[in-house]
Design goal:
Blueprint: H1 6-30, H2 39-56, H3 63-87, H4 99-137, H5 172-176
Helix pairs in contact: 1-2, 1-3, 1-4, 2-3, 3-4
Length: 177
């Protein structure tokens, strides 16, 4: 079921996946390993997307816990991306990254974790405000005034000697013959 609290989690998961994929490739390029391509890039993107999908389905309460969990998810996605790049032969190094690459990965995870939690919170606030504004901004037609008709059982007699045949006259076809 799509709930208002589920949508910010999906935004958080998408941001974790996209930013961890970009930071995995960017950290490797910044550390001198070059940008990944081909199968190494596809595998790193798949791993980052998997971590993002799993993380986007979690319900985390509180901004402090959200920041820690988001930072951990970013770090694990980047580590898995690094392992994928190492295993596919993208760069010839050890399985554990060097100090420069580790510092770049950790710094990116910490900064992006805070930014993603802030974006998730702002998304929830803005969607709530827009839902409330939609109630007041929507033009609704005014209800049409109903005309009330009352049924009456009162029979009003007509005058007999007035112009016309009155109530006790024979039918019009018989009266004209």
């Amino acid at each position: 079921m799509h709930t208002p609290k589920a949508r910010p989690r999906w935004v958080r998961g998408a941001l974790v996946g996209a930013s961890s994929a970009v930071m995995t490739a960017g950290a490797h390029a910044a550390a001198g390993a070059g940008l990944p391509s081909g199968g190494a890039l596809v595998l790193a993107l798949l791993l980052c997307a998997t971590v993002a999908a799993l993380f986007g389905s979690l319900r985390i309460e509180g901004r402090g816990a959200g920041w820690i969990a988001t930072t951990a998810a970013l770090g694990s996605a980047q580590f898995l991306g690094h392992v994928a790049l190492t295993m596919t032969g993208h760069h010839h190094g050890e399985l554990v990254p060097g100090p420069t690459m580790t510092a770049v990965h950790i710094g990116a995870a910490v900064l992006l974790g805070g930014a993603i939690v802030a974006v998730e919170h702002l998304y929830a606030v803005c969607s709530s405000v827009l839902c409330w504004l939609r109630l007041f901004a929507r033009r609704t037609p005014r209800p049409v005034a109903r005309i009330r008709r009352r049924a009456s059982n009162v029979v009003a007699p007509r005058p007999v000697l007035a112009a016309g045949l009155g109530m006790r006259a024979p039918p019009g076809a018989v009266a004209t013959a």
